[in-house]
Amino acid sequence: MTQRKPMKFKYFYQQFFSHISIIIVAFLLLSLLFAHYLENLVYENKTDELISYGKAILAEIKEDPLRTEDVVKQYSDVLAARKMSFSMFDQDGNLYFVNNQGPAIKNLPRSDWQKLTKGQTIVVQSDYKRFDQDGVTFVVLPYLYQDKFFGGILLTSPISGSIKMIHEINKILLSTILIAFGVSFLQSWFLSQIHVRRIQRLRDATSSVSAGNYNVHVHSSNYDEIGELASDFNNMVDTINASMLEIESLENRRRQFMADVSHEMRTPLTTISGVIEGLKNNMIPEEDKEKGINLVSQEAKRLIRLVNENLDYEKIRSNQIRLFKEDIQLTEVLEIIQEQLSLQAEEKNNQLIVEASPEVYVFADYDRLVQILINITKNSIQFTSDGTIWLRGQAEGNHVIIEVEDTGIGIDASEVENIWRRFYKADLSRTSNPYGEFGLGLSIVKQLVQLHNGEINVTSEKGKGTKFVIRFPKK
Question: Is pTM beyond 0.70 here?
């Protein structure tokens, strides 16, 4: 049984229909509100006009009741010209004057009649059931004299003209809506196309990255989320590129390291194998056996150092070691380093000089501090002959500064930053030195200094020596 694929609804159509639906709903609501407002406005204006005429007629009648007939005739012509009619009725609802076929009052509901007797004005807008006439606006005003109800006046005005005007306005409004809808349709289509193209560029770039091409970039901006997404995509590609370069560099160094290790291990293993075979077959003279055994011991220790350096680096890199920090007198540590490495320094006719005040203490792990200083000092001994190596220590502000400076051959400026890399060896010819020959010492040093929340820097000039500066924060 095959599984049905879900129906796709393209993002372009999602954008387009969402824009159009919002515009349609907005136009409909605005149109309905405008039409309703316009209709009410027309009715209110007509009502206000009828009420003003009614009040004027009643005011003149109240002023001089004897002139009632003259006032009615006076306003009859005016109201007739405006297609309005009116009727006068007494307190019993009987008509005593009808102008221009004015309406009767007999169909006025009892509730409205009660309101009228209490002095309230009755307004009826386009009501076809209460009176005999259709399509008109009615206004009934009470005639009160000295707070006594004597009847009133009923005014009417046809609304056919007003309705026709409203219909014309609605037609214009509909035409406007259709035009605006057409413009919004094109605008929505255009905007949706722009958004889809931007997303399509991101999609194409993502496909290129998934195919292994990491040298793609898309146009980015900061004025919307798609632009920020493009910026994040570019940052991702840059990070991947940097990672790929680092991976390639690590792979190259791994190959070099394997070649170096193979070379380093081949020599001691060959030596050990040869000596053991000579001892086994009594091929080594008795007086040389002790020398051969010492040679096997030295080569075995050399292999152990290689393994230990790798293990130390991996533990430090993966943060699997624990530091037991304490206040350590710096002079004592530097003198221990001087004593331990004095024989190696003498072999190359170097001097080890300690310059530090007994009052200076460093907050660090003792074993790891010794490991750091031994690695750096061995490095200085290795590249210095007939020179001087200084071990200095001093307190400065919130830090303790340790310096190891030599007068050796120095390092090329292009190689200074590379000395911290794992497996890197500034001098590939160093295959006979028993210390740091595997290119791991300085890499371990930097990791250990960072674990102490410190920092290490190196300055060097070719032919003039090298200076390592370590800064440890105080407790």
Answer: no
